[in-house]
Design brief:
The complex is a heterodimer of chains A (116) and B (112).
Chain A: E1 4-7, E2 10-13, E3 19-25, E4 32-38, E5 45-51, E6 57-58, E7 67-73, E8 76-81, E9 90-97, E10 105-107, E11 111-115
Parallel strand pairs in A: 2-11
Antiparallel strand pairs in A: 1-3, 3-8, 4-5, 4-9, 5-6, 7-8, 9-10, 9-11
Chain B: E1 4-6, E2 10-14, E3 19-25, E4 32-38, E5 45-51, E6 56-59, E7 62-67, E8 72-77, E9 86-93, E10 101-102, E11 106-111
Parallel strand pairs in B: 2-11
Antiparallel strand pairs in B: 1-3, 3-8, 4-5, 4-9, 6-7, 7-8, 9-10, 9-11
Classes of the chains: A mainly beta (116), B mainly beta (112).
């Protein structure tokens, strides 16, 4: 079964509004989670590393003020897309390393964001 | 910088045959190389992990090899089935990093 869960699976929002996506580790603690973005027919691109209890680490070119990440507990990281624009429409996926599995990284089901 | 490439964008094979997907990397060998399956509109599903010091890993009909001399990993699906049709992604991690860097993926279609 799934070990990482995302919510919502899909969301439609108006331009200029903010939308929050949640990523939960199920039955394990994740001090680190990763947020990826994927455009159609392209591979996953790492956006940021979410660290429990501290600031997220963003990849080059990713606006930290636009993509707010909060990792307030050992099982929950959130990604908030602020002042969304149509070009932010994408598939957002989170992942977390599962302890005791040789550093295997598991992914959530993904969240489709459409900004209209 | 390190690059990871999956040679084929798409691969079509006949049901029952063995599918072989290739993943090449440049520069240094990753500590871990992982293979995932991704269906349209879904998150990647973990299949196999192989470490730098391992040459081969198997799981049911799946086999992964890791050749640090060739800087290449091969992913095999034996006795392929139409249900194996999906995009397969390879991804690597260096020893200190915890995040994955992905290849572009190979879309496999198994024809009945």
């Amino acid at each position: 079964g799934a070990v990482v869960s995302q919510h919502p699976s899909w969301v439609i929002c108006k331009s200029g509004t903010s939308v929050k996506i949640e990523c939960r580790s199920l039955d394990f603690q994740a001090t680190t989670m990763f947020w990826y973005r994927q455009f159609p027919k392209q591979s996953l691109m790492l956006m940021a590393t979410s660290n429990e209890g501290s600031k997220a680490t963003y990849e080059q070119g990713v606006e930290k003020d636009k993509f707010l990440i909060n990792h307030a507990s050992l099982t929950l990281s959130t990604l908030t897309v602020t002042s969304a624009h149509p070009e932010d429409s994408s598939f957002y996926i989170c992942s977390a390393p599962f302890p005791g599995t040789g550093n295997t990284i598991y992914f959530g089901e993904g969240s489709w964001l459409t900004v209209v | 910088s390190q690059k990871i490439e999956q040679n084929s964008e798409a691969l079509n094979i006949q049901e029952g045959k063995t599918a072989t997907l290739t993943c090449n990397y440049t520069n240094y060998s990753p500590a871990y190389l992982q293979w995932y399956r991704q269906d349209p509109g879904r998150g990647p599903v973990f299949l196999l992990l192989i470490r730098e010091n391992e040459k081969e890993k198997r799981k049911e009909r799946l086999k992964v090899t890791f050749d640090t001399t060739l800087k290449q990993s091969l992913f095999h699906i034996t006795a392929s089935q139409p249900a194996d049709s999906a995009t397969y992604l390879c991804a690597f991690r260096s020893g200190s990093a915890r995040q994955l860097t992905f290849g572009s993926g190979t879309q496999l279609t198994v024809l009945p």
